[in-house]
Write a structure and sequence with these properties.
- There is one protein chain.
- This protein has 336 residues and is an alpha/beta fold.
- It has 2 domains: 60 residues, no CATH class; 218 residues, 2-enoyl-CoA Hydratase, Chain A, domain 1 (Alpha-Beta Complex), CATH 3.90.226.
- 41% of the residues lie in helices and 14% in strands.
- It contains 15 helices and 8 strands.
- Strands 1, 2, 3, 4, 5, 6, 7 and 8 form an 8-stranded mixed β-sheet that branches.
- Strand 1 and strand 2 form a beta hairpin.
- The longest helix has 16 residues.
């Protein structure tokens, strides 16, 4: 939509005023800002028509001519063997520290070019198109600088729509995981986070395109389901972890407080006991090397600097994979 020019609504402000008595302008009801930031109906807004048409041209460059073709490859001139040393500086090892995942994406993809979809709506998750080694991929990434990368009602709708679009047009998916799980609270529960979250799981399980998961820093609780970190459940083809990845139902500090909070507060040296328990929890439950040794679905622990190389090799390997056959039913029963 063109900012301060485009409008969209089912019922115009005139009829709304007559029927409900509510006085609204076209901007109040259905401006580009409303639909890009609040409703999520529109994917992007642009300052003018020229910029909008340029954006559409760029978007179409990532999409095949039809659903039976593969997405168009392009020689971008970016070395597929390039290391991404900058990622170690962008992503802090402390799970409580925020960072901008878009900066990480820019270092990974070809030429730093990333066409984001719905950047203003549900910014706790980032989705969009990019190329790696010239191959098109759909990127789905948690955004730790917004709600600690939590999964929400709106982010679930945004993620589902994007993944299903990629599946329609044979575009492989890359999931960059750094989430503190589903956002807790009455507001999310009353809006139906169970129902909306189920859409994500449905889209993951129904998808047939190649899918690669990378846990960059943390994957807590139901976030493992919502971001496809459990391959046996979601069908993720290849799964990688960074050495700083922290796993579990919750983080080490929150888990220790939940299970041992009362014992710590009544201990003779509470700070020492708390530090010891956190260290024990991290060594036992938040250690990706330990997880990899016991979980056959984890393919490898990789250094952040190897991320781009590994993702490109993985996309190349999976590009020849046969699409799985589906049952003859016309469609499944998508959660709505």
């Amino acid at each position: 939509m063109v900012d301060k020019q485009s409008h969209m609504f089912i019922t115009g402000p005139g009829i709304v005023g007559v029927v409900t008595g509510e006085v609204l302008s076209k901007d109040d009801l259905g401006s580009a800002e409303v639909h890009c930031r609040i409703s999520g109906v529109a994917d992007r807004r642009f300052p003018g028509e020229k910029e909008l048409l340029d954006g559409i041209k760029e978007l179409l460059g990532y999409i095949p001519q039809n659903a039976d073709e593969k997405a168009p490859s392009l020689d971008t001139g970016d070395d597929p063997g390039r290391y991404t040393d900058e990622l170690a500086d962008i992503v802090p090892s402390a799970v409580s520290r925020a960072y901008d995942v878009k900066k990480a994406i820019a270092r990974i993809v070809d030429g730093g070019r990333f066409f984001e979809i719905k950047p203003e709506f549900a910014p706790e998750i980032v989705v969009g198109f990019a190329r790696l080694g010239g191959m098109v991929a759909g990127i789905v990434a948690n955004q730790p600088r917004v709600l600690a990368g939590s999964l929400t009602v709106d982010s679930s709708d945004k993620q589902t729509r994007f993944m299903r679009f990629c599946d329609c047009f044979n575009i492989p998916l890359i999931l960059l995981v750094d989430t503190s799980a589903y956002l807790p609270g009455k507001d999310q529960e009353h809006k139906g986070i169970i129902r909306h979250g189920a859409k994500v799981l449905y889209a993951l399980c129904e998808s047939t395109v190649p899918r690669i998961g990378l846990v960059m820093r943390k994957a807590y609780g139901g976030g493992n389901l919502g971001m496809g970190v459990i391959p046996a459940q979601a069908g993720t083809d290849l799964l990688f972890y960074w050495p700083i990845a922290e796993l579990g139902i919750m983080g080490a500090k929150a888990s220790v407080e939940l299970f041992f909070g009362e014992a710590i507060r009544t201990a003779g040296n509470p700070e020492e006991m708390k530090a010891r328990l956190i260290k024990e929890y991290e060594d036992r439950y938040a250690n990706p090397l330990r997880e990899a040794s016991a979980n056959p679905f984890i393919n490898d622990i990789i250094e952040p600097r190897e991320t781009r190389r590994v993702l490109i090799r993985s996309l190349t390997f999976l590009s020849a994979r046969q699409r799985p056959l589906r049952h003859s039913k016309r469609h499944g029963n998508m959660p709505m």
